[in-house]
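REQUEST FORM: STRUCTURE PREDICTION
Request ID: SP-0412
Submitted by: Lab K.M.
Chain count: 1
Length (residues): 459
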Amino acid sequence: MAGKMWAGRFTKEIDERVNDFNSSISFDARMYKQDIEGSVAHATMLGECGIIPLEESKAIIKGLKGILKDIDNGELHFDPAAEDVHMFIEAELTSRLGNTGKRLHTARSRNDQVALDIRMNLKVEIKEIENLVSELITTLVNLAEKNLTTVMPGYTHLQRAQPITFAHHLMAYAQMLLRDLGRLEDTYKRTNIMPLGSGALASTTYPIDRQRVCDLLGFDEITQNSLDGVSDRDFCIELASAISILMMHLSRFSEEIVLWCSWEFKFIELDDAYATGSSIMPQKKNPDITELIRGKTGRVYGDLTTLLTMMKGLSLAYNKDMQEDKEAIFDAVDTVKLCLTTFIPMIETMKVLPDNMRNAAAKGFINATDCADYLVKKGLPFRDAYKITGTLVHTCIEKNLTLETLPMEEYMALCESFDEDVYDAISLETCVMQRKAYGGPAPESVKAQIEYTRKKLAE
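STATUS: Completed
RESULT:
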């Protein structure tokens, strides 16, 4: 039992199977930098407060920095038999410094130590995800600027509905991603709270200075209750939730990319570097990235469900169940970063096919609403205009025509308010250009959306 920090209470060696089951170093080793940074701050405070001799505090700090350097250089490898990264680093420090190393854990529990480490780790991850989301938004904005007048059909129920522009469509996703950024920023605020000093659950009798540690580690504030400090994982759940919503947006966008790539749509073509082929069908060019993102979205939802289910029945304070938080939240973080880092260049390099978009918009009577609006502007009630336009569409279908090619006598036969200017009113370009209401697809409106989005990113 000499190898376990908690061995004094036990008279038998732990069963090897239990040790393997209990160990978390395979996934929590990624927090080694944060564990060492937190320990350096803790040791600094212990020395400054006179809880341990100042010279021993300095020796501990030097020893911890040496361990960090050796891990970074590949000279020190994690012991898979270690219980967790915290015990591994403390054991290594003790092997180097002897009794001095054993003083590091004074006024600290692994409960508040791990709560600190995961917060510090996720703060870094949140910023990295935010940067990737910002990069994707910038990519969409740049692409939108190039397609302000690229007319395409807008859809409801996956049926052609009204004419919009490709820029307008892209900026819809930019707005979703801006909300994702907001959720990530909010999550960061609630993650940036320092729990060290909570102890195992009831703080400590030592005269520690929690605010000093908070300042050294760059947290905004300290936790207000020691029970909550060690048992709170809301920030993990909140981050998993924000990532799940972000993945949902990526999945929706991916679904459209899959459709747009197909010969049935052919609105865009993916660069060869971001598509795959078939082992048997030589003509195939598959949008595998987007299909994987759709699939991985369910995986991230599973991570969120794991966290919620893990926490729902736990009494205060810390329970070993909470060890399961790391694999779930780390998987969600790694998955969304992987998806974003492949999705961004795929969007940057894809080829837009405006003629195909325009041809699709010319079919499906997506200017029918504008035809009805034309009559409303002539003085007819909307419901009457709606019925007349519906009858015109039926006539066009019967005669294999469109509203643009339907002869004027057919218009006049239904309503004397029609005139030759109806053809200009229902042209796709007019339909798009006249939708100038803020948030609409007219180029000037989309330009305003782009300006707004760039301003938000700059903030």
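NOTES: The chain has a mean pLDDT of 93.
Reviewed by: T.R.
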